[in-house]
Amino acid sequence: MSFKVAILGRPNVGKSTLFNRLVGKKLALVDDTPGVTRDRRVHPAKLYDLHFDVIDTAGFETAAAATLQGRMRAQTEIAIREADLIFFMVDSKSGLMPDDKAFADIVRRSGKPVVLVANKAEARGAQGGMLEAWEVGLGEPIPISAEHGQGMPDLRDAVIAALGEERAFGEEDTVDEIAESEALIGEDITDPDAEDIPAYDETKPMRIAVVGRPNAGKSTLINALVEEERLLTGPEAGITRDSISVDWEWRGRRIKLFDTAGMRRKAKIQEKLEKMSVSDGLRAIRFAEIVIIVFDATIPFEKQDLQIVDLIVREGRAPVIAFNKWDLIDNPQEMLAELREKTTRLLPQVRGIRAVTLSAETGRGLDKLMEAVLGTHRVWNSRVSTGKLNRWLEGILAHHPPPAVAGRRLKIKYITQAKTRPPGFVLSTSRPDAMPQSYIRYLVNSLREAFDLPGVPIRMVLRASE
Ligand code: GDP
Ligand code: GDP
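YS: structure for the whole thing
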């Protein structure tokens, strides 16, 4: 088990900048606006030979709990609880502020190991700030420059000193997990050796991403599912900006839930933030096995909803639709008929996609949603034996053979399943490039029906037979 680090400190001291440096990617949102980093995130990070997870936090804000700041503060308290080590950051360029001391008190009370980080040490006049930093009472300040990458070796040593060698050098698990899931993308499925397909493993945590337009109710849904105020929700569109993960269990099944930012942005000033968030959403989709797309049932099937489904299918993930805010629908019978018709017509690439009506606010329909998720996950993992496939193919060839092209009939020799997650098939044929798309679509739809594979992307690769 590796350890978890929370980077804490008042707004603008440079937490996100250090976070980015440790995580090695532009994941956190850096901005000069105080308090722009709003949510909690956990990401695998590296500091030389140390591997750990970083929880990036909102920073402590002193304000009443009814406000956004108050809620951010509550989030930070959760982060402190989950962290094994705290980086408490002060700004040696600006010097100490009253807030710093108040926050340092909270950190000290947590009893967690702390490394006091004095950032912006490269700035002119930082020397004075460095001396002041002692006054927060958290020991010796480690001077660093998050922006310029200075002081990192000292930071490494301070981590080891604070945790002890044994804790500090745990094995690295999260990084491998990500690498593994990303390796599934664009995988070459031309190897027809079906025996290599791994069996469905129910003991591994199922990775679920929750996506959808801003205000569709993603955060409310996740809160309702995990029954804890872990995510910020509110009427401000796009308040949940980054993807974060929550570990959870449903009926004994281990689950890792990802919340993503809303994928659309209206306000211009926010454009920069939103662009990063979209790629973050994509990242979450790639990380996930199942993607719950939250539709606002009062305004369903906006163009962007369809684009999200397309993206999920392209990435080979399995979608489940949640028609949320069903409590606001006056004519549920008619609405249901309309949604059914639209789902079938607008999403032919995932025929049979599971869609569930629910209210994240009242909690109705959540069990149905999770049943659909598990069912879809099973289909996404399913595998059909080569024997069954070829008996099916015989029937197809007898009744609906491929068309003739330029006077010559296309031949199909055999079919085999090369992979799962999503199901991928290899079709051995005389002339792969001559096979019409319409016939391939026909085959995929027939396969879907014959072997009960609704609602998941299906890959079909054609290979030249000798
Ligand atoms: P957070 O709100 O506490 O997460 O702080 P940010 O990471 O967003 O940084 C706040 C500002 O401080 C940004 O303008 C950063 O570019 C700047 N900053 C961060 N680290 C350093 C540093 O090491 N030196 C200097 N001079 N500025 C920094
Ligand atoms: P997000 O931007 O997708 O994370 O959306 P939020 O979870 O922040 O929800 C946006 C707004 O919709 C909030 O005001 C929620 O209270 C409200 N909302 C979410 N789910 C429901 C629901 O099932 N019914 C109703 N009536 N309102 C909901």
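YS: worth flagging: The chain has 14 helices and 17 strands.
IM: good catch. Also The pocket of guanosine-5'-diphosphate (ligand 1) is lined by residues 9, 11-17, 30-32, 37, 59, 93, 119-120, 122-123, 145-148 (CB under 6 Å).
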